[in-house]
Amino acid sequence: MQRYLAYLHQKLDLLYPSAEIGSFSRLLLRKLANMSSVQIYSDKDRNFPADTIEKLVSAIDRLADNEPIQYILGETEFCGHHFRVRPGVLIPRPETEELVELIATDNRGKVLRILDIGTGSGCIAVSLAKALPLSQVSAWDISPEALKIATENAVINEVIVHFEMTDVLKYEPNKLQRSSLDIIVSNPPYVRISEAAEMEANVMKHEPHVALFVENEDPLLFYRVISGLALKMLKPGGSLYFEINSYLGKETLELVKTFPFEDVQLFQDISGKDRMIRAKL
C-alpha cells in the first residue's frame, strides 16, 4: 500500500486539498482493492496483486486529469440510494437532494402521477418513486445514454419508472395527456455559458455540456417552456417544482409568476442560495 500512497500523493498533491485526497484514497481502496475501513487504517503494509495496482494507478491518473471520482468508480449516492453514473449523465448534486426532499415532504403518503423532465441519471425520478411508493412516476430525456443509465438505476433501486425519449422544447401533449399529472419536476440546463469560467475543471472537461449550459441570451428557456407545458398537463391543484440557477432566483420567480399559477414560492438551499421554485395550480 505504501507504493500506492506515494503515487497518489505524487500525482494529486498539487491538484486537490489534502482532505479530498484522503477521501479519494479511501474510496479507491474500498472499491478497487476490496478493503474495509478497518483494513485501510490497520493494514498499511499490504501488498496488492498486479491487477489491483494497475486499477489503482489508472484511477489515480484519471483523477490527475480532473475526471470526477464518481465516473471513475461508476457510482454515487443520492438521497441514501445507490446510483450508477457514467460520462453522458450529470453527477447528482446535493442541492438536488433538497429538491427531492421538498417534494417528498409536501406529498408523503399521496397517490400521484409524477413526471420528471430531463431525468439524466434518473436520480430525481427514482428517488421520488422510493419516497412516494404509491405514485406512478415517468421521466423524459433527449439522451439515449442517459435513459439507459436511468433505467439501470430504476432496476438497481427496485422501482418502476416509465422512461421516454422526449424533447420538451418540441413537445405538445395530446388530449389524453392534458390535465393528467399531479406533479411535474425538472432540473433543466440552467448554467449560462458566461458562467463557464466559474465551473470546476472536472465539470468542464468531463460532464455533458448539453445537460448544463444554456445560451446567455435566453437562460430561462426551459423554465418558460416547462411552465407553459405544466398548465396543460397538470391537474387542477397540481404542482410544478424546479431546481434553478442561484444567480437567477428572482428572475426565474418572476418568469413563473407570469403564468396563471395560484401560488409560486422561491426556496433557498442549505447554503442560503436561491435554489428551488414551487408553483401550484
Task: List descriptors.
single chain, 281 residues, alpha/beta, Rossmann fold, seven-stranded mixed sheet, two-stranded antiparallel sheet, 11 helices, 11 strands, 20% strand, elongated
Account of the protein in words:
The protein has 281 residues and is of the alpha/beta class. It has two domains: 2-65; 88-280, Rossmann fold, CATH 3.40.50.150. Helices cover 41% and strands 20% of the residues. It has eleven helices and eleven strands. The protein has helices at 2-12, 18-32, 37-42, 50-64, 69-73, 94-107, 123-131, 144-156, 201-206, 221-233, 249-257; strands spanning 75-78, 81-84, 113-117, 136-141, 161-165, 181-186, 191-192, 213-214, 234-243, 263-268, 274-280. The strands form three sheets. Strands 5-4-3-6-9-11-10 form a seven-stranded mixed beta sheet, with helices on both faces. Strands 1-2 form a two-stranded antiparallel ribbon. A two-stranded parallel ribbon has the order 7-8. A hairpin with a 5-residue loop joins β10 and β11. The radius of gyration is 21 Å and the shape is elongated. The chain starts with a helix and ends with a strand.
Mind sketching the topology for me?
Layout: H1 2-12, H2 18-32, H3 37-42, H4 50-64, H5 69-73, E1 75-78, E2 81-84, H6 94-107, E3 113-117, H7 123-131, E4 136-141, H8 144-156, E5 161-165, E6 181-186, E7 191-192, H9 201-206, E8 213-214, H10 221-233, E9 234-243, H11 249-257, E10 263-268, E11 274-280
Parallel strand pairs: 3-4, 3-6, 4-5, 6-9, 7-8
Antiparallel strand pairs: 1-2, 9-11, 10-11
Helix pairs in contact: 1-4, 6-7
